[in-house]
Every structure is written in structure tokens, then in C-alpha cells.
């Protein structure tokens, strides 16, 4: 299991070929029993089915209504020659998720998964996994869709804004302790000098798309749930249940398990669901929750600018951002030196210093460029290439500047008795590929730290043999 | 790339045909198929059109505002329930509304197909307007990803609708719509075979109705991008025969106007479409070389000796699909029998 944020595949910069969802690797490492319990809920099966790649979905569908197992060759006969590789890897993924049973001898769906997905599609069973709707309350009407959207947005931006402005001396609204703990635990923020500071992983996180950010946090939440001895299956199935719920409808908390009731508070803090009071027996999912399993969520946006793009970048490194959103301004401030601010416009320029600052914070040049591309103003989209090449190249060059020096620890071997001695040891070290630098005139070479024990014992053996 | 796809389904609901078939079983399979399409992706869109005798109706579209929210229960996914209840209720209502004297009228399959095409066109235009609103046309227009039409047919060909069907096929080609067809009973539908062949779709004949859902899912659920990996069945033989313009008969050997490409079942002195006159010598030569006419047509046939014609006679091999955007064009060649 990946231990830090940076090792995880980052959905924000995934290439178009690999459409693997961030959650699937997490599910693949779960035990078969846990997955089997998860598959008992039709809503979980439906959500996981949606997270799969198109070919995987088609394979599942082909097998869904069959009572008996298929021989692999039967379905393989349908596969085109150029699709063979993709088909095989799809089968592997499904098998790792324990959706395929007995693969590769036979092709059949896991019985639990099959029953649940059938129930999801035909609507049946008594699991109640799509959420029990609350009775209509005439006195207190539920929050309407706009209300939910603005609530979710406010919650989400509070988190991001807190992250981006930490350490800048501003004092934005603090998210709840639960969120702060999660941010710290996930390595997105670190505790320095008694106050929370954003880490380089956190800076990278900020430049991702909001959908990827949300899943990133939820994955951290899942890891944390494991440590808090929460039942992972219940946590997951509650998330999946939320994703199949209907926006603008109230659901009852009565059928939720104890773990799931405890989750209500956390998810309320992230803006995934809304409750009138913390003790309320009903809740409404927000758009953040109901679009969890879709690939391009229409996340609410306060200005409307973020959905269409708002950044104009000119060849003279000037940046015009049509926004009045403090969060977007703060994110831009990460790598742009801002000059003027107007009611609907922020002007700045990309300079060597501003980019260096971003690079020092752990943001990569590619992330800056991809952020600019994602949020480019529609007017910019007429250009081909979209961003001025000079600016793109320069940002990359600034990144290269930073990498001029590479440090590596090791040991210097020097004052050999004779040239033969020196060459003998050097040859040995070269064979082991341990030599980083050598100088024949000075009879010294530099070996990497991993190889020190080897080289040392080699020299000792040789001198022992020479003396004896 | 994982992109949302659109599916329009045209259902042939001819009451006289469904008398002998099990409509409720068929609908339960079809609803399962709809749900499978909606399940695949949050953004997938669906529209359902019904072809009734002398009438075609849009039964469901996912872009419609939700009129009545179905009572929610905890065991089903709300969108599925909405599709199922809307389609079933609308079909029941429309079947009741059919007047008795309309029962024998031919089913308006072409009407429904045209409505489906118009609907897809509207979605495409809207999608383009949304993405290119503030920019000029230099931006590459975003076509609706993977639009498809599935025709579920129980009726044989209606020969009088040959020209409208062909025109629909050409519109579909222009819109880059794939037409799939599934026939459940009756003789094989020649026009639907041509429609699927010319738009790169799949045609299946469901021999066993109790396995209809499996047929639909295996062959017709996957969007074109997935079909590149898991292939779908295509016909090994396609009936390319056309109908003549004069009597709407399906012809094995026809005569094509060399100017406007209209098809006739016998040599004619003047093309009825473009009024071109043909030389009398050719007409005589053609008449002498052609096999004896079926009796049914001879009474209405124009007297061959009175006129001149210059039509082409030799049936050419089944042609490549016409690619011209001009919708007047018909298959250039007149074909005999089945394609190889």
C-alpha cells in the first residue's frame, strides 16, 4: 500500500490512456472477504461498476446474466487482434478486484457481485442500499439544490483556502479539527513551529482538479479509517451509497450502522452532505457526493468562471485572471507574482522568482503548465498551441536550472599504495557499478554509499591476502 | 478514452404483430438493457421512441425535466426507476389511444427514426453551442460523442418507405450516428440490414426471445470505442436490393436513370423524377434482353414500344455505400440478390 501521497498515482495528471480510477488500486489490495462483504450491497456494486474502464464494464455486462460459467475462449473469440492486450489486462483487473471468479480457468462473475448488480439494475432485494428516504416534513423543508451547492462549495473552499493561505500571515476560517487532522495525517499539511504549514504534497494537491482532490482526500480518509478501527466495508459502502443518492432529497439516518453514523460528522465537514443540526435524523447529500462515481463532475462553482476557464497568458509572461474568487487568486499566487487586483480581474506575471518559489514548494513545472491549460480562458483556446511556447519552455528551463546539482552520498577511496592496487579495486567497484567518479592521476575514486561495505571488505580481504 | 455516450432506441410497437408475441417479457428485457446503458456511466444519455401504427412518439428522454418524481424506495437506483416507469406508462397510454381504424395502418418506423435523428442533431448543436459560445468557429466543433440509434423491429419491410429510410441512413452518416438493429420476429428486414451496414452498426436476429437481453448486451450495448476491442457481430451477407420508384417493389434487376439515378422495375421512356427522355433504340434493346415480367406489374406497365430509353441494364456488383451528402442520391447500382 502506498505510504505517502506522492507515490500514489495522481488522478489529476493521469494520461488519457490509463483511465484507472484512484480508488481501484485501493480496492485491489483489500482482502477477498472484505470485498465479498462490500459486494453484498447493490449500490456499491453499481458504483464500482461505474469506476471500471469501458472494456471492463462490457465484460462484466456480458457475463452478468449468464447462469453458468463461460470458457475463456468463448469470449476471447469476440476480441479483435489489436484489442487483445487491453482485453487481457482488463480481465486481470477484474480478477484482482475479485469480480471475476476462478479466472483464468473459467469466466464467471463472483456470485455475490452478480446477485447484487442484478438487483441494482432490476431494482429488487431488500438491502436498502440506495438509502432510505426520509418522510416529508412539512414544517421544515429540505435545503434546495442551490442551497446544497453553495453549502458544499463553501465547505470545500474553506478547506482549500485554509491550505493555500497557511503561513502567509492571513487568518482564514479554520476548518473543523477533524479536517485539520486529516490534512495533517495525509501529509498535505505539516506541523511546523506549532502551526500548520502546507507541505509540497499539499501544493501539488491544490493544482489538481477538484474531483481528483476529493478522491485524494477520501482515500486518505479510508486509510485513516483503517487505523481508527472503523469497519472499512461500512465506510466504503456508505460512500458508494451516497454516490447513488439523488440530489435534493432527504434521507433518513435510521438504517445506518454505528460506524456510518459516526461518518456523518466527518462527511459534513468535507461538504459531502448536509444536516440541519448535528443531531438531526435526516441528511441530504450534496453534489460533491452524488457525482463521486462520475468522471467529470459538474462541481458547483461560485463564480461560474472556473468551469469555463478564466486565465489569459500572454507571450510576455503576463497573466490576466478573470476571477474574484479568493481561493483561485491564492492558488495563482503560488506561482505568479500578482501586480494589480480589480473587482473581477487579477493581473500578474510569471517571473523567474515566482516560479522558483513554486518549485521550491515542491510544485513541478508540468503541474503549473497543466493548471494553466485546464483553466485557460475560452479566448485562449483559439490559440494553437494553447499556451505560448516561449512561456512553457521557460518554465521548464527554470525547473531544469534547479536540477543542475545532484547530490549523492558516498565514500572517497584514496591513497592507494600502488597504481595496480588502485586499478584492481577500481575494476571491482566498476563491475559492481558502484563508481560515481574516478581520477587516475590522484589514484582516488568515489563510490556510492550502498557499495561501501562491499568495497571495504574487498580491500580488507586483499590486504589480508597480500600481507599473508 | 472513457467518454459518455448517447443511445436512442426506436421500438416497433405494432399491436397486430405483438398479439402473437409476449410484450411484457420483451419490455422487461428491454428495460434491463436501458438500465445497463444508464448504469455504465453517470453522464450517459438515453432517449426512447415508439413507432405505433401511423404515429411515432418520444417515450422518454433523459434530458426531459422530471415531471413526476417516482416514489423512492431504498432498494432501487432512482434513475433506473424513472426510466422504467416512464417508458412502461407511456407505452400503455399510447397503445390505448390508438383508434381502431388506425390499427391496420403501417407502423411509423421511419417517423420514429427521423425523430431520433432530429433529437441527436439537436443534442449535437446544443453541445457545440455550449462549448463554442464565446469563441468563433476556429475551434474544432465537438460532435456528440458516440451517438447511436438502436432499432428494435418486429415488422417486415414496408416497401413504400424505401426512399425515406435511405434518406435517414444518409443523414445518419452525416451526423456520424451508428445505427444498430435487432429484429425479433418476421422475415429479415432488408432495409434495416442496409441501414446498419452503411452506418457501421450491428444487425442481429434474436431467435430466442427469452434470451433477448443477452443478445442486446453482447452485441448492441458497447459504444463504438469499445467495439474496437470487443467486436460485435456484423452480417456476413447483406441484402442490398432496392425498391423501384414506380411500384415500390423490391427488385432483383432494375433500371436506373442515368441522370438522377432513380430506379425503375422496367425500362421507361421518360424518367418520372427528372423528366429525362431516353432514346427509343436503347429502350427496345433493353426490353428484348430482359426476362419476362411478373404478371402483377404488367397491367400498370407503360407500353415499351412507344418510347425510347437509355438506361443502364447490367446489374453491377453491390456497390460501395454512397458517400455523397446529396440526399437525392440512391445506390448507384441496381443489384440482384444477395451480396457476396
Automatic annotation (TrEMBL), chain A:
Keyword Transcription regulation applies: yes
Keywords: DNA damage, DNA repair, Nucleus, Transcription, Transcription regulation
A Pfam family assignment: Tfb2
Main subcellular location: nucleus
Entry GO CC: transcription factor TFIIH core complex; transcription factor TFIIH holo complex
Region (Disordered): 1-20
Any GO molecular function: ATPase activator activity
A single BP term in Gene Ontology: nucleotide-excision repair
Biased amino acid composition, Polar residues: 10-20
Compartment annotation: Nucleus
Domain Transcription factor Tfb2 C-terminal positions: 393-459
Family indicated by similarity: Belongs to the TFB2 family.
Protein function: Component of the general transcription and DNA repair factor IIH (TFIIH) core complex which is involved in general and transcription-coupled nucleotide excision repair (NER) of damaged DNA. Component of the general transcription and DNA repair factor IIH (TFIIH) core complex, which is involved in general and transcription-coupled nucleotide excision repair (NER) of damaged DNA and, when complexed to TFIIK, in RNA transcription by RNA polymerase II. In NER, TFIIH acts by opening DNA around the lesion to allow the excision of the damaged oligonucleotide and its replacement by a new DNA fragment. In transcription, TFIIH has an essential role in transcription initiation.
Designated name of the protein: RNA polymerase II transcription factor B subunit 2
UniProt source species: Marasmius oreades
From TrEMBL, chain B:
Subunit structure: Component of the 7-subunit TFIIH core complex composed of XPB/SSL2, XPD/RAD3, SSL1, TFB1, TFB2, TFB4 and TFB5, which is active in NER. The core complex associates with the 3-subunit CTD-kinase module TFIIK composed of CCL1, KIN28 and TFB3 to form the 10-subunit holoenzyme (holo-TFIIH) active in transcription.
Family per record: Belongs to the TFB4 family.
Function: Component of the general transcription and DNA repair factor IIH (TFIIH) core complex, which is involved in general and transcription-coupled nucleotide excision repair (NER) of damaged DNA and, when complexed to TFIIK, in RNA transcription by RNA polymerase II. In NER, TFIIH acts by opening DNA around the lesion to allow the excision of the damaged oligonucleotide and its replacement by a new DNA fragment. In transcription, TFIIH has an essential role in transcription initiation.
GO cellular component: transcription factor TFIIH core complex; transcription factor TFIIH holo complex
Record's compositionally biased regions (Low complexity): 298-313
Cellular compartment(s): Nucleus
Region (Disordered): 285-340
UniProt GO molecular function: zinc ion binding
Protein name (record): General transcription and DNA repair factor IIH subunit TFB4
Keyword annotations from UniProtKB, A to Z: DNA damage, DNA repair, Metal-binding, Nucleus, Transcription, Transcription regulation, Zinc, Zinc-finger
Database matches in InterPro entries: TFIIH_Tfb4/GTF2H3, vWFA_dom_sf
Entry's Gene Ontology BP terms: nucleotide-excision repair; regulation of DNA-templated transcription
Main location: nucleus
Taxonomic superkingdom: Eukaryota
Amino acid at each position: 500500500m502506498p505510504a505517502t501521497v506522492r507515490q500514489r498515482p495522481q488522478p489529476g495528471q493521469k494520461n488519457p490512456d490509463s483511465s484507472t480510477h484512484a480508488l481501484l488500486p485501493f480496492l485491489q489490495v483489500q482482502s477477498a472477504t472484505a470485498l465479498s462483504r462490500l459486494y453484498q450491497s447493490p449500490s456499491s456494486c453499481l458504483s464500482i461498476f461505474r469506476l471500471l474502464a469501458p472494456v471492463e464494464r462490457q465484460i462484466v455486462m456480458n457475463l452478468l446474466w449468464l447462469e453458468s460459467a463461460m470458457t475463456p475462449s468463448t469470449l476471447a473469440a469476440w476480441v479483435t487482434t489489436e484489442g487483445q492486450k487491453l482485453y487481457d489486462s482488463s480481465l486481470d483487473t477484474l480478477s484482482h478486484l475479485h469480480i471475476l471468479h476462478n479466472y483464468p480457468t473459467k469466466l464467471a462473475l463472483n456470485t455475490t457481485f452478480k446477485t447484487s448488480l442484478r438487483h441494482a439494475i432490476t431494482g429488487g432485494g431488500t438491502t436498502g442500499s440506495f438509502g432510505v428516504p426520509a418522510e416529508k416534513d412539512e414544517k421544515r423543508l429540505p435545503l434546495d439544490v442551490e442551497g446544497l451547492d453553495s453549502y458544499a462549495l463553501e465547505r470545500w473552499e474553506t478547506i482549500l483556502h485554509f491550505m493555500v493561505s497557511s503561513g502567509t500571515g492571513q487568518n482564514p476560517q479554520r476548518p473543523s479539527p477533524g479536517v485539520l487532522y486529516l490534512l495533517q495525517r495525509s501529509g498535505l499539511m505539516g506541523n511546523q513551529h506549532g502551526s500548520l504549514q502546507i507541505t509540497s504534497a499539499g501544493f501539488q494537491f491544490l493544482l489538481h482538479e477538484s474531483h481528483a482532490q476529493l478522491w485524494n482526500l477520501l482515500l486518505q480518509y479510508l486509510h485513516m479509517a483503517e487505523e481508527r478501527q472503523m469497519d472499512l466495508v461500512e465506510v466504503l459502502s456508505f460512500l458508494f451509497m451516497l454516490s447513488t443518492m439523488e440530489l435534493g432529497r432527504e434521507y433518513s439516518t435510521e438504517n445506518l450502522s454505528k460506524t456510518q453514523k459516526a461518518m456523518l460528522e466527518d462527511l459534513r465537514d468535507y461538504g459531502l452532505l448536509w444536516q440541519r443540526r448535528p443531531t438531526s435524523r435526516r441528511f441530504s447529500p450534496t453534489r460533491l457526493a452524488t457525482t463521486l462515481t462520475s468522471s467529470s463532475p459538474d462541481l458547483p462553482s461560485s463564480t461560474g468562471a472556473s468551469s469555463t476557464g478564466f486565465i489569459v497568458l500572454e507571450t510576455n509572461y503576463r497573466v490576466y485572471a478573470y476571477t474574484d474568487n479568493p481561493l483561485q487568486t491564492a492558488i495563482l499566487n503560488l506561482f505568479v507574482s500578482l501586480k494589480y487586483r480589480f473587482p473581477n480581474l487579477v493581473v500578474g506575471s510569471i517571473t523567474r522568482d515566482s516560479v522558483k518559489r513554486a518549485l521550491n514548494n515542491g510544485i513541478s513545472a508540468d503541474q503549473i503548465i497543466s493548471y494553466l491549460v485546464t483553466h485557460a480562458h475560452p479566448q485562449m483556446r483559439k490559440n494553437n498551441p494553447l499556451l505560448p511556447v516561449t512561456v512553457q519552455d521557460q518554465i521548464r528551463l527554470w525547473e531544469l536550472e534547479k536540477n543542475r546539482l545532484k547530490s549523492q552520498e558516498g565514500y572517497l577511496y584514496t591513497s592507494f599504495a600502488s597504481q595496480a592496487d588502485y586499478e584492481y579495486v577500481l575494476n571491482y567497484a566498476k563491475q559492481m557499478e558502484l563508481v560515481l567518479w574516478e581520477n587516475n592521476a590522484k589514484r582516488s575514486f568515489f563510490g556510492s554509499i550502498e557499495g561501501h561495505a562491499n568495497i571495504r571488505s574487498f580491500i580488507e580481504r586483499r590486504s589480508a591476502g597480500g600481507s599473508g | 478514452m472513457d467518454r459518455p455516450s448517447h443511445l436512442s432506441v426506436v421500438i416497433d410497437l405494432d399491436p397486430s404483430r405483438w398479439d402473437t408475441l409476449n410484450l411484457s417479457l420483451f419490455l422487461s428485457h428491454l428495460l434491463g438493457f436501458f438500465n445497463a446503458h444508464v448504469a455504465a456511466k453517470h453522464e450517459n444519455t438515453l432517449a426512447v421512441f415508439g413507432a405505433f401504427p401511423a404515429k411515432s412518439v418520444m417515450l422518454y428522454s433523459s434530458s426531459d425535466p422530471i415531471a413526476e418524481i417516482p416514489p423512492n424506495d431504498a432498494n432501487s437506483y432512482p434513475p433506473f426507476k424513472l426510466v422504467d416507469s416512464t417508458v412502461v406508462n407511456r407505452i400503455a397510454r399510447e397503445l390505448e389511444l390508438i383508434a381502431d381504424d388506425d390499427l391496420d395502418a403501417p407502423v411509423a418506423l421511419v417517423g420514429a427514426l427521423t425523430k431520433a435523428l432530429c433529437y441527436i442533431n439537436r443534442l449535437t448543436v446544443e453541445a457545440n453551442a455550449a462549448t463554442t459560445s464565446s469563441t468563433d468557429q476556429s475551434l474544432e466543433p465537438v460532435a456528440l460523442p458516440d451517438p447511436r440509434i438502436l432499432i428494435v423491429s418486429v415488422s417486415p419491410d414496408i416497401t413504400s418507405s424505401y426512399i425515406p429510410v435511405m434518406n435517414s441512413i444518409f443523414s445518419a452518416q452525416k451526423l456520424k450516428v451508428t445505427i444498430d438493429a435487432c429484429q425479433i420476429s418476421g422475415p429479415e428486414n432488408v432495409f434495416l440490414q442496409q441501414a446498419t451496414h452503411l452506418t457501421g452498426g450491428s444487425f442481429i436476429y434474436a431467435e430466442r426471445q427469452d434470451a433477448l437481453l443477452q443478445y442486446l448486451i453482447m452485441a448492441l450495448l458497447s459504444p463504438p470505442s469499445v467495439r474496437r476491442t470487443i467486436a460485435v457481430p456484423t452480417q456476413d451477407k447483406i441484402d442490398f436490393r432496392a425498391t423501384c420508384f414506380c411500384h415500390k417493389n423490391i427488385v432483383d434487376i432494375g433500371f436506373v436513370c442515368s441522370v438522377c439515378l432513380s430506379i425503375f422495375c422496367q425500362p421507361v421512356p421518360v424518367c418520372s423524377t427528372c423528366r429525362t427522355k431516353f432514346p427509343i433504340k436503347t429502350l427496345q434493346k433493353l426490353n428484348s434482353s430482359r426476362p419476362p415480367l411478373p404478371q402483377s406489374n404488367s397491367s400498370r406497365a407503360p407500353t415499351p414500344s412507344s418510347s425510347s430509353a437509355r438506361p443502364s441494364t447490367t446489374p453491377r456488383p453491390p456497390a460501395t455505400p454512397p458517400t455523397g451528402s446529396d440526399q437525392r442520391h440512391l445506390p448507384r447500382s441496381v443489384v440482384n440478390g444477395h451480396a457476396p
